[in-house]
Amino acid sequence: MNVTILTKVILCIGLYLFTIHYFKKSNSSDNPFTPENTKFLSTRLM
What we know:
Number of domains: 1
Shape: elongated
Radius of gyration: 12 Å
Strand content: under 5%
Helix content: over 70%
Order of helices and strands: HH
Structural class: mainly alpha
Largest sheet: none
Distance between the termini: 20 Å
Number of helices: 2
């Protein structure tokens, strides 16, 4: 497997988990997968 792809996957998973943890901490009642947050995440992953 290509090292660059593997590194990107690991970074994406780390960012994903961090985002879930951050949104749970900041506002536990809100869903972390709102359109704005999903758009933000996909922008960060590019």
